[in-house]
Every structure is written in C-alpha cells, then in structure tokens.
Design goal:
Number of strands of chain A: 2
Oligomer: heterotrimer
Order of helices and strands of chain A: HHHHHEEHHHHHHHH
Strand order of the largest sheet of chain A: 1-2
CATH class of chain B: Alpha Beta
Helix content of chain A: over 70%
Chains: A mainly alpha, B alpha/beta, C mainly alpha
Structural class of chain B: alpha/beta
Bound molecules: adenosine-5'-triphosphate, magnesium ion
CATH topology of chain B: Rossmann fold
Structural class of chain A: mainly alpha
Strand content of chain B: 25-35%
Number of strands of chain B: 10
Largest sheet of chain A: 2 strands, antiparallel
Radius of gyration of chain B: 17 Å
C-alpha cells in the first residue's frame, strides 16, 4: 500500500514539529490541542471503530477533570495520582454508561449517552465540591513523580506530549489488535458477527470503557495544565464538538481525529478574538460536513489515494 | 407468436440495481390487455425485482418500460398507481398499525370501476366482519386476500401478483385460484409470479421463464402443459 | 387537611399541577420527536432550537410588529413549521439514504447555529413577554391559587396533543402516516406522495415545537438557551417512553413533569436530575422503554 510508505516519514515529521513547536506557539495552546486530539481519538474508538455514536463523552472528559482537580487541590495528591484517580473515575463512569446504553442501538444509544452526560452536568452544577458556576480554580500542577516541577508550562507541555503520544500508541495498538478486527467485523455487519458467535455487546462495552478512560485522561491532563475545572468541560457542547472533530478529520481513520482536533482548536483560537458567533460557525461547519464532507480530511485523502 | 390484442405492458432490455448489485440484466417481455401472464423461475431469478422495477420501488433502472404507452421509467413512483397498476407484494405488506378496514381502504382509488365492499366480501367472505382486527392478526391466507382486496377496491386494472399462494394451505390456494379466474373474467390484466405450476396453469394464458435477471423462455399455456419436461429443466425440479 | 409523607395534600396537589405545566411542554415536544422519528427515522436534535425559535418569533412579532398573543399563537407555529419544512426539503431529505446518525448530527449542528445566532444578536439574557390581558389573574382551586395563564398552558397543550393523537390514530391521513412509518415504499407504490408527506410531517411537528414556544414565552424568559436545556430532558423522556407510541410519548411527558414537580417538594436538590434517574431505572428494567417496541 502506498499510504504505508508515507506513514513513517509523516509521523516522524509530525513528532518533530510537536517537539519544536513550543519555540513558536504558545505551549498552552499546544496542550489544548493535544488533549483534544486524544479526546477525539478516544471518541473515534467507539464512533469510528465500534460504530457507536456517543453524544455524552464530555461526561468522561469533564468528570475526570473535576475529580483530578479536586484530588490535586483539596487532597493535595501528586500529579500522577490525581490523574490516575480521574482516569479511574472516567473508567467506572464509562462502564456504567456503557452497561446502561449498549443494548440500545444507533440513534437510541446517542440519546442515552447524551441524557446520562447531562445528568453529570447537573451534578457538577449542584455538588458542593465542584464549585458550581465558578468551577475549581487554581488547581496546583505539582511535580511529576516528585521530581519534575510542572509549573513551567513548557515542561508541562512536554509531559503532556509524552503521555498523549503514549496513549495514542495504545489506541493504535487496540485498533490493530485482534480485538480491533473484531470491532471492525461488528461494524461491518453486526448480524453476521452475532452469528459467528462473537459477544457483540461485550466487545462494544470494552471499546466504550477504553474510550471513556482515554477521554478521562485527556480531561485530567487538560485540567492540570490549565489549572481550572469548569462546567464547559462537562457540557453537551463539548460532547458535540468532539464528534465534529472526529467527523471533520475522518471517522474511522487513525489520524482523522488528530487532524480534526487541530483544525477545530486552531479555528476556535482564531475566532476567539473575531467577535463572530463561534458556536454558530461551528454548527454551520457541522452541517456542511454532514451534507458534503462525510469522509473528513483524512478519509478523503485516503479515498483519493486509493483511486 | 402473433398478437392480435392490444399491448398494455412492454418491457424492453430492462436493467435494474439494488445499490451496486445489478439484478435485472435486460429483461424483455410484454402483456396484452386481458391476459394473465406468469413469470416462473428459480429463487433469486429476479421475478420480484421485475415487479418492483415496474412499480418504481426499485429506483435505479435503465431500459424501456411502458404501460399503455406511458413511460414508466420517467414516472415518479407515487404516480405509477394512477396509471392503473396495482401491486400485491410477495410479503403481502399488511400493516400492523392499521386494522383490517384501514388496510382495505388505504390505497386511494385510482380509476372508476373498482370493486365495492359487497363485491369484495363476496369474493373473499373471510374478510367480512373483521374490520377492527389488527391487520397482521389475520391468518396468512386472509392477509393474502386482504392484500388483493385492497388493490381490487382501487379500480386498478393491471395487477401484479407476487406468489399469492406461498405458504398457504391447499384449501386457501383453491379459494385464491377461484378468485383469480373471476378477476380474469372481469377483464383485468394480470402478471402472476408463481411457484405452484398447477395454480399457474389454471388461469394463465402465457408463461415467461426468468433466470439471472433475464427472460430465457416463453410458453403458451397449452405448450407448458404438454411440455412439462422443458419447464422442469428450467426450474431445476 | 390530611398529610401525605408530612406534606399537606393541598401543597402536594399544587405541586402536581405545577408539574403538569412542565409536563405539558415535555409532552408537546416528545410527541413531535416521536412522530418525526417514526416517519423520518431522524432524531431531531434541533427540536429544542425550534421551540426557542417559536418563543423568539413570538417576542419579535410583539415588539416589532405589535402583534398580540392570540394571532401569534396561530402565526408563529406556521412560520416555524414552514421553516422546518424548508430545512427538510433542502437538507434532511438528502440524508435519508445514509446512516441515520448523520441526520442527528445535522440537526445538532442546526441547533448550534440557531442558538448561536440568537445569542449573538440578542445576548444571553432572557426577554420578558407579558401574559396576555385575558389570561392574567389567578384561579382559586381550593387547594391552591393557580395563575390563569398556567392553567391555559396545560389545557392548550393537552388539547393539541390529544388532537394530534386523534388525527394519527383515527383518520385516513393518520392511516397513511402509520402505514408510511412501517413501509414507505409500498405506500408510495399505492400512489401516495410519501416524500411530500415527510416534509409536511416534519413541518407540522416542528410547528408543534413552535407552538410550545409561544405557550412558553409568557412563563419562561425568552432566551437563546431555553431550547437546548429542555431538549436534553425531553430526550430522556423519549428514552423512558420509548419511541414506539404517540400516546406513550404524551403520557410519559406529562407524568415525568409531575414526578419532577413532586421531587421539587420532597427533595428539591434532586429535581433537576430526577428524570435522568428515572431513565436509568427504566433502562435497567425495560431497555426498550415503557411503551417501546424495539430495543
Ligand atoms: N433489497 C435487495 N438488495 C440487494 N439485493 C437484492 C434485494 N432484493 C433482492 N436482491 C437480489 O436480487 C436477486 C433477485 O431477487 P428477487 O427477489 O427478484 O428474486 P425472485 O425471483 O423473486 O426470487 P424468489 O422466488 O425467491 O422470490 C437475488 O439475487 C437477490 O439476492
Ligand atoms: Mg420473489
């Protein structure tokens, strides 16, 4: 395949750019981009590879962010433990959402996840420890393994980079494992997968839980780097945006969500000061994408190369 | 073969597709006014698809299809019935969210001269007094009768009947056979898809044999009865 | 007066009635969602945005054209419905052949656009809309004082819901709709213009959302976010009821409004999530929903 020949140099170039980037771009912006790229890749695992549309992934991202922020600030847990706790929370939450929703197909699954996530949102508004509208502010970054001080944002960036790249490698491994092939088989033809004796529901659930855990990781990293847990992180807008990132980059392609996240985060960054209605523009891109660009950037690229 | 009677349906080199899969490969056949013509063929030969293509249910199609001179390919699917075509599908298509009365009156009347309720109950006594029954609670045979009855009500004068006897008990098959003879006597033009040769030969004038999306043979009814070996070879019995 | 769980019955009845008001909105919206889903296989995420649109158009025709409440009650649903029909014709129609998830995502984007534009133009703050003259004042019900307008909302919403239900279950047009839900291509082969029917159905249900918006304008502040807050709750209502039945959607909507009202009395801090908790319980016990036919 031609694409494979391109893959290694492209990835190497991408990594090179990311390593050098803090010299020219704000590290915080890059962190945001990395976290959302991981988030979108995690969503893609269920949307692109297991064929489940979740409209509630912000619950994992934001839920984990709140737990991590609280653990780091109120309990004074170190960076690793705080992040781990957040991820553990997201994993359990994913298990709960998945167990409740997985039996309902397609569109229903989307509604169930959306509603469950909204419940988490309301809890975040009401529970005492989340700080309501103010969120949890001034979350301490702490030290990595007690050694590396993360208060320097560039250092923070490199730590996030390493973790996110490691997590993306994990996603790659999952997709290309026998389990990934089973998911692909289910997505192709669920009825046939059932008749082959595959436990379809369990496979979907596992994918969903992995996805929730990785989304939680993305949220934890972001909350530590930005030192703020807020309601935005659990809102349905974010759940929708991450779907859009995946869609516009290319559903079911490995690099699509990363490209999509980079595109959308940059776009929002530039729009932020323009005075234009950002949400409306994002919505319009969503509509356009669904109407005429369903393959997304990477999907379109791969499709053209195939011909 | 000579045709003295008026041509009603004319298919010439008709192709059609389900998505990417090409099913009809140049089907050619015709039906004259008042004729009962059957389409025979093995499972998957394309008999149902021919009907669905005529009705415009299968949208991706090419070639020529005319009814009474009207170009069927150019006719939007909801206008086909208005030309007098009535479709009784293989799966019968009785609606479970409608009761018998609603099922019966669902298809709009397209031409005058359709059967009234009295005629219908005379033809299919089983349907009388069942108005409030949920359509799909009827027995298979009754559902078949209902599927035919609702088309006869509309005044359609060209009926596509897809395997009306499939899975039915012999008594019911006889009843439907009788109904078919009456319909023919009323002058309706009919295409019948049928596996049951005895049933097919009871009322038909001519028979087409389809295989792999094409018409591969044609018989008059007399020839079919006298040359069973040839038809059996086609059908692989 | 006797008490139930330490609550005077009068207070309880009052809460039930107040719950019915929210329930009326849930019923109007979930009814539309269920019909749209049944006919078009579309989860109309923009339903909340159309409701908001209805409330805003009501406010606009009042403040800009001086149109009063009663004409607005007729005109606004038509305007909103026509807008919806145009959306169906121009966009949704082209998405029926692809995965149903795309139409959900499309309407999601549409909701973002509508909400975002209104926020941009009008700001986030709510706009007040006066209660129409004829419906001011309160009703003395013995156990509570019910503002007349709120009573009117319950009655109007119920009437519209029941009328819609009757049309669908008892008329010839309804028979076409039900049949087309089951097997659109056969209905089309019988000579019925199904695509047109889909457009009209979508327009009508969106019009219902607009109608709910008009009803809501004098009660809730007219604000860009009013739709999305509501629609997610209505989704939960729909998951609880299951999409299979129109009557089920109405009943579920009303009863969840009541449950929410009662929770407000007994355990106020849970009132914003009680519907989601009910949803979780229903998903555990009856995954297809209370009135659902398919999982
Ligand atoms: N909806 C569909 N999508 C794709 N292929 C189809 C579809 N319906 C039928 N086919 C294919 O088209 C071919 C012809 O099918 P058709 O139903 O017309 O056969 P038939 O002659 O009516 O058979 P039977 O006697 O079993 O009813 C078959 O190979 C079948 O697999
Ligand atoms: Mg067939």
């Amino acid at each position: 395949m031609q694409t494979n020949k391109l893959l290694v140099p492209a990835v190497a170039a991408g990594l090179g750019i990311l390593l050098a980037a803090p010299a020219v771009v704000f590290p915080l912006f890059l962190i945001q981009l990395l976290c959302l790229a991981l988030f979108a890749s995690a969503l893609n695992l269920v949307l692109g590879y297991a064929g489940l549309l979740s409209l509630g992934h912000a619950a994992f991202f934001g839920g984990s962010a709140y737990v991590t922020a609280h653990a780091a600030k109120a309990w004074g847990l170190p960076f690793e433990l705080a992040v781990l706790l957040g991820v553990a929370f997201a994993t359990l939450l994913g298990l709960a959402f998945g167990a409740l929703g997985i039996r309902r197909h397609g569109i229903y699954f989307a509604m169930v996840t959306l509603a469950l996530a909204q419940m988490i949102y309301f809890l975040a508004v009401q529970m005492p420890f989340t700080g309501g509208e103010d969120g949890i502010q001034a979350v301490p970054r702490g030290k990595l393994l007690g050694l590396v001080d993360l208060s320097d944002t560039t250092t923070m960036y490199y730590v996030v980079l390493v973790i996110v790249v490691a997590a993306l490698i994990l996603v790659w491994r999952v997709v290309h494992s026998p389990f990934g092939h089973v998911l692909a088989a289910i997505r192709e033809n669920e009825a046939r997968a059932v008749s082959l004796g595959l436990n379809v529901e369990r496979c979907k659930l596992i994918a969903f839980v992995i996805s929730a855990a990785l989304s939680g990781l993305a949220g934890s990293l972001k909350v530590i780097a930005f030192q703020l847990a807020s309601l935005n992180n659990v809102s349905w807008h974010l759940s929708g945006e991450v779907v859009l990132m995946t869609l516009i980059g290319g559903v079911g392609t490995f690099f699509g969500p990363i490209v999509g996240a980079a595109f959308l985060v940059s776009l929002e960054h530039f729009l932020a000061t323009s005075g234009l209605p950002i949400a409306a523009i994002i919505g319009a891109i969503f509509m356009a994408c669904v109407m005429v660009f369903r393959r997304g950037f990477v999907g379109e690229f791969l499709h053209r190369r195939k011909d | 073969m000579t045709d003295s009677r008026e041509r009603r349906l004319e298919l010439k080199g008709l192709h059609s597709w389900y998505g990417e899969s090409h099913v009809l490969h140049g089907t050619t056949l015709h039906v004259n006014r008042g004729e009962v013509v059957t389409i025979l063929g093995r499972n998957g030969a394309g008999k149902t698809t021919t009907m669905r293509t005529i009705m415009g249910i299968v949208r991706k199609r090419k070639g020529e299809a005319r009814l009474d001179g009207h170009d069927l390919i150019a006719t939007p699917p909801h206008k086909v019935a208005g030309l007098g075509l009535g479709y009784v599908p293989e799966e019968r298509g009785i609606f479970s969210s409608l009761n018998v009365a609603e099922n019966l009156t669902l298809p709009p009347v397209v031409k005058s001269g359709g059967m009234g309720l009295d005629d219908i109950y005379e033809l299919f006594p089983n349907l009388e007094g069942r108005d409030k029954t949920v359509g799909t609670r009827l027995s298979g045979g009754e559902q078949q009768m209902l599927a035919m009855a609702r088309i006869l009500r509309t005044g359609a004068d060209f009926i596509l009947l897809d395997e009306p006897t499939e899975g039915l008990a012999p008594v019911i098959v006889d009843e439907i056979a009788k109904a078919l003879v009456k319909l023919k006597a009323l002058g309706l033009t009919i295409i019948l898809v049928e596996q049951n040769l005895k049933f097919a030969t009871a009322s038909a004038d001519r028979h087409y044999v389809m295989d792999q999306g094409q018409v591969v043979d044609e018989f008059t009814n007399e020839r079919l009865v006298s040359d069973m070996a040839r038809i059996n070879a086609h059908l692989g019995v | 007066m006797p008490d139930i769980f330490g609550m005077p019955v009068a207070v309880l009845l009052g809460q039930v009635l107040l719950g019915l008001i929210n329930g009326s909105f849930y019923a109007l919206l979930s009814l539309g969602l269920a019909i749209i889903f049944g006919m078009l296989n579309v989860i109309n995420f923009a339903h909340g945005a159309f409701y908001m649109f209805g409330a805003f158009v009501t406010w606009m025709v009042m403040s800009w054209l001086g149109l009063s409440y009663w004409p607005a009650l007729v005109v606004v649903p038509i305007v909103v419905g026509a807008f919806g029909a145009a959306i169906e014709r121009l966009f949704l129609k082209r998405l029926y052949q692809v995965d149903h998830l795309y139409s959900l995502l499309f309407t999601f984007g549409l909701a973002l656009v509508m909400e975002g534009l209104f926020r941009h133009v009008f700001g986030s703050a709510g706009k007040p809309y006066p209660v129409p003259q004829e419906l001011t004042g309160v009703l003395k019900l013995g156990f509570m004082f019910l503002p007349v307008y709120r009573g009117w909302v319950i009655i109007a919403a119920l009437l519209v819901c029941v009328a819609t239900w009757l049309v669908i279950e008892k008329t010839r047009l309804g028979a076409y709709l039900r049949a087309a839900t089951e097997n659109p291509s056969l209905v089309q082969a019988f000579g019925i213009n199904v695509p047109l029917m889909l457009t009209i159905t979508y327009g009508f249900c969106v019009g219902l959302a607009g109608f709910a918006g008009v009803l809501a304008a004098p009660i809730y502040q007219v604000s860009p976010g009013m739709g999305s807050n509501l629609i997610i709750i209505v989704f939960a209502v729909v998951v609880i009821g299951g999409m299979g039945s129109i009557g089920g959607a109405i009943l579920t909507g009303l009863s969840l409004g009541v449950i929410e009202g009662l929770t407000k009395t007994f355990y106020p801090s849970a009132s914003s999530i009680v519907i989601f908790i009910v949803m979780v319980i229903v998903l555990m016990l009856r995954p297809a929903g209370l009135f659902g036919r398919e999982a």
